[in-house]
């Protein structure tokens, strides 16, 4: 096909499947545009930057949007409005995956707006679109004029029977103990995110290393793609970054501010200031310095502020690297004081308060019926999930005042990380037939609230009596690196996160890792640093776990009296219609009558949720009566409901909720052992009689017999069983 455009297509085999990049074909007005195809998964990724830097800001304005289109999996959006609305949680998490490894790879001081848009056009579930999007974002940035210091590559690593698998298929992922996303440059790992089923640290290191080997191939492929694109005029020369020379101002500020800030940091350490005291003290001091230097350099507010912040950062980092002393006086391996409590809230199903230093999280568990699962309307193969963790971060937790709106990307990301950490220990539906929701409320924040949520959630689950497979704890690690000097910090607080080079969160049980998230702010870290960090994180995690288990060592044996009791039964799937009734009439009457919640699965499983045990048992009895089978040959006590010339109708299973029960016909010939002239001579309406089920007619109607349920008359018994006669005397 002739398009009149220069088009470049290039392909590489990753995990046995073709990864193809195409540029020049679509979206050519974007700064960089790549159509990524990984087998049948197709994602369009564009990277566009503003021509001029944004004035008056001291951060890099990068925005990543991950656009899910349900046509990609042949779906029409649910709900009243049949178009995609706000991003799903999965889309937000995918956007964060793209953002995190590329953000550190822009030059310091770069202030141009950069917008990356990944639009998912087609999805083969065996080839995750988020991985295609990450590699596409790297390629689009590499083709653009933006000063991206990449490229990067990204893969997923799975673990099946001790074998590491790259980009596992859906079938492989179901068997895998690990879902690890690795992103990095050709030289180092930039970002790691994992959910795991208690995978040991040494295997996790091997998985990261194996993933990085594959990443290097993708990076080399993207570099070759750019070289060929340049020859065709499909890639742009990198823009020149003009940074104003402010060295004279910086030297003047540093000369005066450095000793003042150094003395301030030493005072904070010596007098063990808490977060509020430290923040107030440093803010006041920096405000005084700002005022003084603004009088000398009135047009250089950002330069002065940036220099003062850099001085503080350098002093704190050097204290750690050279003296092994942190700003709160702790050693590098020391965890802040911990205290925990469970059962705080009397009416909730379970609650746990976890406090570590000035980070405090209250987690609350709610148990619901199976039908309370979250319905998912996104590009994934899962339609629902029965375990949810939600994370809230109110402004008062850091002493601030700001509007409270819906959860932002940070809240969704932190909530998902904690959910990933806890999910491997949640009991199966067969063992514990409940939907489980945890809400973690951050009450105080001074670093690593996501790991505090993991700890608080574990406490709350055990308080709720959820039979988790093992308790989970989490810890956040940090890194300070200058040249060959490296310090790894256990349990970082907010200032160490801001001033450090790595945020490395690890959660797990005593036997292994369940979740991992690492973000690097420098050019990457090597295997040696990762190994040290994971080993130190395990020590910290075990310490935290021991403090938690001092408060509650195992799940409670009884649920809260306010939690629903789930009664489970199964019926023949063919009987489901008898329970539901026409238009749902019968099931609605059962629910209204008993006050329970009833969920019926297509395979005949029935879950009855009731806080009142008697109400649950009443609902169960009703369902059993509706589905009770009448066994041919068995005798039943029935009630005569009506009389006809040809026989009596007898109800052998009572009706419920004003609905008719199960009845059959006792034909007049089956009423007695003797001939009956008139039905009323033997039974009347309302009589209770014994009847025997003798079969069904050709229309499926039950046939009953009163005669067969009665003992035989004496003469008939004698005829069937004649008495034994003794021989006369003398007879043989």
If you had to describe this structure to a student in words, what would you say it looks like?
- The protein has 732 residues and is α+β, with helices and mostly antiparallel strands.
- The chain has five domains: 8-232, Ribosomal Protein S5, domain 2; 247-323, Orthogonal Bundle (Arc Repressor Mutant, subunit A); 338-480 and 487-493 and 526-551, Ribosomal Protein S5, domain 2; 565-627, K Homology domain, type 1 (Ribosomal Protein S8, Chain: A, domain 1); 634-712, OB fold (Dihydrolipoamide Acetyltransferase, E2P) (Beta Barrel), CATH 2.40.50.140.
- Helix content is 32%, strand content 28%.
- It contains 15 helices and 29 strands.
- The strands form six sheets. An eight-stranded antiparallel sheet has the order 8-7-9-10-21-20-18-19, with helices on both faces.
- Strand 18 (473-482) and strand 19 (485-490) form a beta hairpin.
- Helix 1 (89-102) packs parallel to helix 2 (129-143), helix 1 packs across helix 8 (409-422) and helix 5 (247-271) packs across helix 7 (301-323).
- The protein is elongated and about 125 Å long.
- The termini are far apart.
- It is an enzyme of class 2 (transferase).
- Residues 705-732 are annotated as: Disordered.
